[in-house]
Amino acid sequence: MSDFKMLIGGNLVAAEQTFEVINPADESVAGYAPEASDANLDAAVSCAKQAFLTWRYSSNEERGKVLKAIAKVIKDNAVELSELLSLEQGKSQSQAQREVQQMAGDGAAARAAITLEPEVLQDDEQFRVELHHRPLGVVAAIVPWNFPLGIAIGKLATAIMTGCTVVLKPSPFTPLTTLKLGELIKDVVPKGVINIISGSDSLGPKLSGHPDIAKISFTGSTETGKRVMQGAAADLKRVTLELGGNDAAIVLQDIDLQKMAYPLFLGAFINSGQTCVAIKRIYAHEAIYDDLVNALAFIASQVKVGPASDPESQLGPVQNRMQYDKVMSVLAEVKANAEKGEGRIVAGGETHTGKGFFLKPTIVADVKEGCRLVDEETFGPILPIIRFSDVEEVIQRANSTSYGLGGSVWSSDVTKAAEIASRLESGSAWVNQHPNLTPFVPFAGAKHSGMGVESHQMGLKEYCQVQVVNIAKSA
Ligand code: NAD
Which of 99, 242, 377, 454 is catalytic? Predict the structure, then answer.
């Protein structure tokens, strides 16, 4: 029996079946989540459809009020939510608190201020032409396991602020915190506006393929995103896809290493490297290459990796067995290449014996393109550092990937760095930081990293249909 219930039409609903959620720190069962039946799915979509009939006409003020009430519930229950998040996701206590308090709590409150207003395109003696953004209807919000609550809130807030209703599905690896959120917000959200259902692998395609879904907001891997888009084509469902990345950080020779080594390290290893916009490749100029490698290896050796139950832990495990196996197979290739003299591990890399999916921050120097570690999105605590000598050439190397999520340039010369950053083929290009996302700034993936935009008014427009009301005044 599950302690967790789904939120359907304003009621907490148990399912006949449950599935295990595994704590990645020790492989024990963290909890049991409801396995939504087809009837549960239909009920959730139908409640959302019913609620849309009235919620679509709510004012921005009403919408903002609901969102602020959700933000308050998150803040008031931050301790319980962040403990649960650490338990199922594996992230350290401080990182879980940050996700709950800042990404989810502050994020929801901030998004209450982001609204769409009608525009008057023409108003003269003959015509008045108004541009409106009408809510699309029921949104299927599909979330991955790396930032379960932070990503869910972005989607819920966008639905609320546009007058859409939503059926949210967390990842089967991390459903518990999201289900708990549903229980906590039950009485502050109008019935049916937010529905939360959980289930294992088959639920995602069933939800995104449901005929009463008008819009799919998907965050996850590029491969799954392509399948979602294929499925959506049949009835022209609108889609926003936030997908994988292989972000490059280009470090120029005039960088202040004392100041920037730690932000570079965090940019790569925060959430144990399981961040879509983590630095996944560092290109370091040959003049500072050895110093940067040594500085990052030193920081890596000082970091405490362990279970979130230990308050000293700074980084947690890889989130699940499947992902761990993938990271370990990339590491096996790195080790095999190193034996041939191609690349060397300068920090981490040791095999973890014992329970849990742990790998210490692993840094690989003297590598280049042509191996999985550099060419693919590993999505774990393992980072290649690649040597370069020519800026023009390194821009091409950074761009020679099918991904285009984020990228960054690091230098004491901010103007020069910004000019280079503007040539990166990525939706976000940062200077002397990586990443930096807020609700007020559009977030978009170029190339195979996504389609559409999240956050900012541009993100709201993705949940809306443009309608032009064109009035001839001569009645
Ligand atoms: P995933 O694609 O395996 O799963 C994401 C979600 O989709 C899960 O809820 C899953 O149950 C669901 N799903 C699976 N198959 C589906 C289908 N056919 N139809 C509909 N839904 C389906 O991704 P993941 O392993 O959970 O997350 C890691 C990936 O997510 C990485 O590639 C990472 O870069 C990416 N990601 C991207 C962003 C971003 O904003 N760009 C943010 C976080 C994670």
Answer: 242
